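can u pls check wat happens w/ flavin mononucleotide
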Amino acid sequence: MPRDPRFDILFQPVRIGPVTARNRFYQVPHCTGMGWMRPRMLAEMRGVKAEGGWGVVNTEYCSIHPASDDQLHVSATLWDDTDIRNHRLMTDRVHEHGALAGAELWFGGSRSANLGTRLVSMDVADRPNAVGHPFQSRAMDREDIRNLRRWHRNAALRAREAGFDIVYVYATHGYLLAHFLDPETNTRTDEYGGSLTNRTRLVRELIADTKEAVGDRCAVAVRFAADAEAGEDGRPIPGERQEMFALMAEMPDLWDINIADYSLEMGASRFVREGALEPYLRWVKGATTKPVVTVGRFTSPDTMARWVKAGLTDLIGAARPSIADPFLPRKVEEGRVEDIRECIGCNVCYSGDSLALPIRCTQNPTMGEEWRRGWHPERIAPCGSDAQVLVVGAGPAGLEAARALGARGYRVALAEATRVLGGRVVREAALPGMREYIRVRDWREGQIAKMPNVEVYRESRLTADDVRSFGAGHVAIATGARWRRDLFTGKRFGPVAAPGTTVLTPDDIMDGRLPQGPAVVYDADGYYMGGVIAERLRQAGLEVTLVTPDDRVSPWAVHTGEGWRVPGHLMAQGIAILTAHELRWFDGAEVTLACVHSGRETALAAAGLVLVGQRAPVDDLYAALRYAPDGSHAPLPFTLARIGDCEAPAIIAAATYAGHLYARQLDAPVDIDLPMPHDRTDVGPRGEGAK
Ligand SMILES: Cc1cc2nc3c(=O)[nH]c(=O)nc-3n(C[C@H](O)[C@H](O)[C@H](O)COP(=O)(O)O)c2cc1C
Ligand code: SF4
């Protein structure tokens, strides 16, 4: 299909200093948990984005010197020649597909405690570590500033040698340069503190240094916040940002504009919708002649075109939309907008950085597996046989398996017990703030609907006999999981109430079965469900106390960045929060809790207890097929697998991954002793690479 002319504007080239982006699709810097540690995985992943049509593909934050070290998080680095070689893998892959490659030079200041390199951290002033490590930073003196400028310049030269086309001065996100700019954090009395001119001096020097060093061939970009400090969503606190900007407006070749509140900029869809930065940056384009890029979890080409036409931005910046769909630009270009795999705003991608793991994505199971497993988001091997595959259960795992098997050309039958497809995502998407999660279902259902080789059977709850008589060559059971009414107590599951006392679970709440009075939600799961269920009950007018055995509410949501907002959001709704208490018992009228540190017991009056604990796989169909009465494997005329929550309950990203893995590996032999290559240092057969 030809591209819709409404989107022509998105495909106009944009000149950025000495280089030209082929279109307006710009992958802003985003970390991956790969960085310096996994260069091959990284290069392949970024290359796929360039292939998918992004005009610019950037690195993650890229340290200029060991004095800026973020371990355990894995940043990129440009410290020496080994880094040049590693980055060249990426720039070559990006250039092969006609895109520009950008490097975001980074110095952490008091955000990096340098735990790995053990060099003393430096910042604008004496400061405590900004992320809670008991390591302070010392104030930089003039010599430190001279060193920093030299390190930055050398890193820029290395970036150019590595083949980058754009080099950043990274002056935001609470790192060193942001502290120099900020009138509150910059308490210096020398020529780098005090007046606006003084506080912008270092950034201006770095822009000038970088231009002088690499500006002949590379564009110089600055990442800069359009507002002064985080406030109420949608109401910028401009402070002196416009005056500050005016001092530098024409210096770089590109302005990459973000905002002070990272929890809004990278906001989870529970709290933030597409295009949320609009009120913050209306002034920027009018204040410079240089091109501007900004972000907003843009997945709709209509919104993108509107932003460009409205003069809000020149380039459409994207981190998450490019992760969920590396081929988003190509799909717009080819008139296949409905094929865009839209980001759901779950921020599981961010958990890769947070946990120092290679990036992963709920919507795009190939993300991070481009090199390791050789997966491509748009290409998949044709089927290895003409066997029919029966997939039982149309939740995220079953849907993804059916879709990917269909794309391989298999004849697929997808059987779902209920009328609607989507399994847990349909149920969860109806909970407060969760509606974008339905995109997990919608995209897959839309793709399957185009595949004549995939048949969908709704309201088809299959028995083992049904499956046996179906005649498929392969059967995948994806029947999901249910929330348990008992609780894992460290060693085993045990009851939390006497028989006959009702204990509710998230499944009950999602089925519309609510407590009849004040409720305690006990969250031993630790991710989003506890908070979301508490919110659902509160919206129904109930008094709610959310209890967690952890020292903070929704502890795992810290890894997705949701944690920045969850506690305040819940409190604002009037939900009481009690941390560090474990559940002992519920007698139908009172919940007995014990402090996890002191053991002291507390009782809370409650008409209902909702237990957000663990889930049990719904695997009876699998077991009935798999096992003979004596427990041995039953002989079957088809291959049998269980996938997703039905095998081991986990996050939705694990379910889509499991479905995809199943589809990829069907008829493809796998060495289970060493199932995938590892991207790690190889010292060579005789250790010659050890030095
Ligand atoms: C997984 C992830 C990692 C990120 N890492 C960086 C980073 O290294 N440097 C940076 O400047 N911004 C980083 N960001 C912020 C993004 O550049 C971007 O500003 C933000 O995600 C909003 O854009 P989006 O809505 O298109 O995702 C990261 C965002 C994500 C999702
Ligand atoms: S993990 Fe979630 S937020 Fe991140 S890109 Fe994928 S769908 Fe979007």
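The mean pLDDT is 97.
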